[in-house]
Design goal:
Blueprint lengths: L10 H12 L2 H14 L3 H25 L2 E2 L5 E2 L2 H11 L3 H39 L4 H19 L2 H30 L4 H11 L3 H17 L11 H6 L7 H8 L1 H25 L12 E4 L2 E4 L3 H11 L3 H32 L3 H20 L4 H12 L1 H30 L2
Antiparallel strand pairs: 1-2, 3-4
Length: about 425
């Protein structure tokens, strides 16, 4: 490990880069599907998962900074691949650590092309075409080409460019989405207590438990927008590039991600849906089946999650679906940026850090953006999302066995704070 304040991005840029990968379609679509399936009580399980996620995010991002590699030119390489291989080597488990690191890297590359790329491009294109009323394969292809060009321009510049873009995009899209939610909640202030009663009363029914588990774990992980990605290890890759002297300090910054993403934004989405349904009776809870059909306005209709959230917002703010489309595209775009960096770091770990290796991955990533926009993904996305879910297993093993190292870093950071205060 290289100690010191080396790094490529500021803590805020690292935070927004990681947030841009997690604040996305899970907040818009995943919450709606979970509530439709499990009722309002599913919301409480998401909040609990958010608080639990803060702990695992702290550990993995602290380890990410501690075990990162820094090249002579200042380029940073970090993430679970490095703390699994280097941390386990310190314990004398070199072979085991290498196997876990390679497995994680392979899953991360597959996940970056699928859930972190094609799925995002596909959903953004679908939402855009639905808003414009254009049903054309060529239009989807053209949309994909435009997004691919924009993504390519940014990712060529590496994490510094990604961080510079996400620190502007993430606050902007958060203001759009959260601002609209606050307006709706303000308009229906008197119904908020009733909504919370429904959430707490429904949280302990079998239906709510099922909906919460499916909403938080399956919908989130498998749709590449798990409400905080805690435990996946992806955020540790972005946070590894931070300029800091103390690894634990970045772990503290990373705590904010599950709080912002799951506890705040997902809860606001849930409140909007529950309150709107209280007023308008849009759909019946617990009637979402495996094909995502829900009893909507008295008849069974196919719902993809985004539709349900869009309907809820539209009911309160007419034509807000147009603004939501912009938010979805921004969410998808920023998610692709961050996942391109995650996949690239894993790719380099597997194939080396040469310039040609770098360019090959970026070229493939841009091509997959166009493919994702133009085709029906089906089994391809299910497989790639399973890869993201598989990243959890080697990462959690690493967090458990390397937690004593995190404890050491926390002590070192606290000692530095105490010394600073005594000056």
């Amino acid at each position: 490990m290289v100690e010191g304040s080396d790094g490529e991005v500021t803590p805020f840029q690292a935070l927004t880069a990681a947030l841009s990968a997690t604040v996305g379609l899970g907040n818009i679509a995943g919450v709606a599907v979970a509530i439709a399936m499990g009722g309002p009580g599913a919301t409480l399980w998401m909040i609990i998962a958010g608080f639990i996620g803060m702990a695992s995010k702290f550990v993995e991002c602290t380890l990410g900074v501690k075990y990162r590699d820094i090249d002579a030119d200042g380029t940073v390489h970090g993430g679970p691949m490095y703390y699994l291989s280097k941390g386990f080597k310190e314990k004398g488990w070199t072979g085991f650590g290498k196997v876990l690191a390679i497995f994680f890297a392979i899953m991360a590359v597959g996940g970056s092309f699928g859930g972190g790329n094609m799925f995002q491009a596909n959903q953004a294109a679908s939402q855009f075409l639905q808003m414009t009323g254009i049903e054309s394969g060529f239009a989807a292809f053209a949309f994909g080409v435009v997004i691919a060009i924009l993504v390519g321009i940014v990712i060529i510049g590496g994490i510094k460019k990604i961080g510079a873009v996400t620190e502007k995009v993430v606050p902007f899209m958060a203001v759009i989405y959260v601002g609209a939610a606050l307006v709706i909640l303000g308009m229906n202030f008197s119904l908020i207590p009733k909504a919370f009663v429904l959430i707490f009363e429904g949280a302990f029914t079998p239906e709510a438990g099922l909906g919460g588990i499916l909403g938080v774990i399956i919908v989130g992980f498998q749709r590449a927008a798990f409400s905080n990605e805690a435990g996946v290890g992806s955020a540790a890759i972005a946070h590894s590039a931070v300029k800091t002297k103390y690894p634990a300090s970045e772990g503290v910054v990373a705590l904010l991600e599950p709080l912002i993403d799951t506890v705040i934004i997902c809860t606001m989405t849930a409140l909007v849906i529950v309150i709107t349904n209280l007023k308008a009776g849009l759909f019946e809870y617990g009637h979402l089946d495996g094909s995502k059909n829900v009893i909507l306005n008295g008849s069974e209709k196919a719902v993809g999650g985004v539709d349900l959230t869009s309907l809820a917002f539209d009911t309160a703010i007419p034509n807000f679906s147009y603004v939501l489309t912009v938010a979805v595209i921004l969410f998808a775009f920023s998610t692709m940026l961050s996942w391109s960096y995650y996949g690239l770091q894993a790719w380099k770990f597997l194939f080396g850090k040469g310039k040609n290796v770098d360019l090959l991955y970026k070229a493939l990533f841009v091509i997959f953006v166009v493919i994702g926009s133009s085709i029906s993904l089906g089994a391809v996305i299910d497989f790639s999302d399973a890869m993201i879910f598989a990243m959890v297993f080697p990462n959690i093993i690493g967090l458990l066995f390397l937690s004593p190292k995190v404890r050491e870093e926390v002590k070192r950071f606290r000692a530095a704070i105490k010394e600073y205060k005594n000056k």
